[in-house]
Amino acid sequence: MLRVGIGLLLWMFLLGLSAQAQDNCAIYVRGQVKSTNGEVLSGVIVRLTKSRTTTTDQEGNFEFSKLCEGNHTLTLTHLGYREQALVLDLHNDSTLVLTLTPDAIHLQDITIIGQQQAALSQSTHGLSAQELQENKGKTLAESLLAISGVSTIGMGNSIVKPVINGLHSNRILILNNGIRQEGQQWGVEHAPEIDPFIGDRLEVIKGAQGVRYGADALGGVVLVSPNPIDTSKTLSGKIDAIGQTNGRGGTLHALLEGRTTLLPNLGWRIQSSGKKLGNYAAPRYQVGNTGVEELNYSGALTYQMGKNNFEAFYSHFGTTLGIFEGAHIGTIDDIYARIANGRPFEDYAFSYAIKAPRQKVSHDLAKATWKHFFQADRSLEVQYGFQRNHRREYDVRRVASDDTPMADMVLNTQSLDVLFKEKNSSLGVQALSQVNNNTPGTGTTPIIPNFDNYTVGLFGIHQFHIGRLHAEAGARYDFKYLDVAGFRYRRDVVNADGSIPQYLLEDTRTFHNASGTIGILYHFTPTLSWKSNIGLAWRAPSVNELYSDGVHHGSATYELGNEQLKSEKGLKWINSFILNTDKINVTLDAYAQMLYDYIYAQPNPDSVRQTIRGTFPLFVYQQHDALFYGADLRLAYLINEQLQYDVSASLVRAKNLSLKNYLPYIPADRLQHGLTWRYKSNAEALSYLKVAHRFVAKQTRYEPNSDYQAPPPAYHLIDLVASKQFDLATDRKLAILLSVDNVFNREYKDYLDRLRYYTHQMGRNINLKISYQF
């Protein structure tokens, strides 16, 4: 007891000394960091006497509290700028305005890739503020069409997913706020379950990205990244209201964020969006049962404590999507008649009702991140993520109620990422576990079986800097274990009543492979640079490619898997030439990719599958070696202070090397260009008039009689945009945008649209977008 009493007295004494010391150490230092051109700089690392570290927020602000009197060394570090150090002699609270000088020769090196180290040699493209404003209310894939080399594949105008240099679905990774998005992305008509309003930055990384992001990144990576929470004010936010004539509906979005007065280092953000659209219209008719309903919301917390940063994030995405009812057909004769007609036989009235066939999808994502700075250039980051994807697909029932789904799948995914970074090196471990279960009671055999999937990967990356030459090299190893249980049909046996018997499928598979990357960045001059990167990536065949055998209700197709499939392996070499001057900005990407054991779904026009639920086109999974190559161009030319011309063009070529023929569903050549006139000579202002032209060529690299319908003709579309931004008061802005897509209401089909067999794409669409920021 005596020892306890003495210990308590000592503890109280030390506590008193500490409190007294705190009374003498109550100085605040607040500051803002800007570039020499007056632009505020966010993300600047600010170190105070090697013991305390913070980063500037979205407005370039930082602060330190409870500082003692005396001399303190303040160091500012930011990629693309020269490091600055100064000594502060503190006696009272201080407010600083600090300026960093750009290091012009390294301005091309400052792209930050997700949660990873700066990727010097990768071809990275993002949407500008103008492009983000113009694409508000669209799907993620439609928004990315502004980037050269990106196209879309899907069903109609509401179910689309991105295609990068001819690759899509499981070959593209999407990072949703730093978490690898995991849903049922194997389906062509399974659109990414992401609300684009979450992302203040939408970026595409072209090339094989297996080292940084793991298996499946054969085609590239899409980054959906929010800005840091604005903690300079207790409350700020923005509101977006969007209306459109085609579909007779719109979108509403709101975001609030700030900091708490009790805990100044605690930032918070809440966000929500909703969408409702009815049937969209082709130029001469309504497309029945193509409405959309969405309700999405998210919340985030950030807290900074000394050298530690904590972040918590949660988002919910929920949507109901109608599928054109004319794609679900009863007889063999009818399906061929509809394909030959090329448009619906029926006349549909406009409606907001979403009937079967339809999809109902919800996706919940939660993550927790801890980041510790040992020093400004040395850190450890641990990130845990949990996702739950629930997909229900409804078809027209012949007996039971349409309220019972034909497919009901729940996919739970857990991920753990550990990343250590020191100066120019990074080491990481990534682990992922997935459990997919088909909910019983649908009355149908699931198209894919239940499965468990476990993956672990180790990687390392190092960068070298020698004058104008920068290089990076990395290596990775991944191991994947797959355990499946379900049912498949026995096609070699027919029961007495004409039905096909099933057998129990139980299988385990293991896949493993190495990935690598090597690349350089060389500055010929401060305005001309060259990037070259060779990347090796791979992916294991997905469960649907291996084991699917049934009607895919979401796409109105019958899919047949192949249990003999092996892993895909891709080697991609991409070269980027970048020219940035006061008058012209040009990026040219040229690439070639060898894909060994490329997996694809081949349509079989000589056969369809007739079931009790209708007759459907048959797609069978095959595997052959393939070669992809092509080029993408992005050019912006400033004719004068107010007039700018923009060009975006892409072409991709793909051949089946094993069969010496063309591959199906490869994007046709694309060209987008436009002329923008700004009311003021400010390239960043959202006050302008714009006319744009979109051209998509006919896909002539096609094997005759290999599909149910030959590729559609080329098409030209004209778009108009008028935008005006009003500065109402300090930190308060109002932007109004009026746009017309497909001004002349042209009738057209796109080769990568699965509904092109039966209907045309959307006709003229007038959009009004109002954005208020405070």
UniProtKB/TrEMBL annotation:
It is found in: Cell outer membrane. SUPFAM superfamilies: Carboxypeptidase regulatory domain-like (SSF49464), Porins (SSF56935). Residues 1-21 form the signal peptide. Keywords: Cell outer membrane, Membrane, Receptor, Signal, TonB box, Transmembrane, Transmembrane beta strand, Transport. Residues 119-221 form the TonB-dependent receptor plug domain. It is a multi-pass membrane protein. Residues 358-743 form the TonB-dependent receptor-like beta-barrel domain. PROSITE patterns: TONB_DEPENDENT_REC_3. Pfam families: CarboxypepD_reg, Plug, TonB_dep_Rec_b-barrel. Its main location: membrane. Belongs to the TonB-dependent receptor family. This is TonB-dependent receptor.
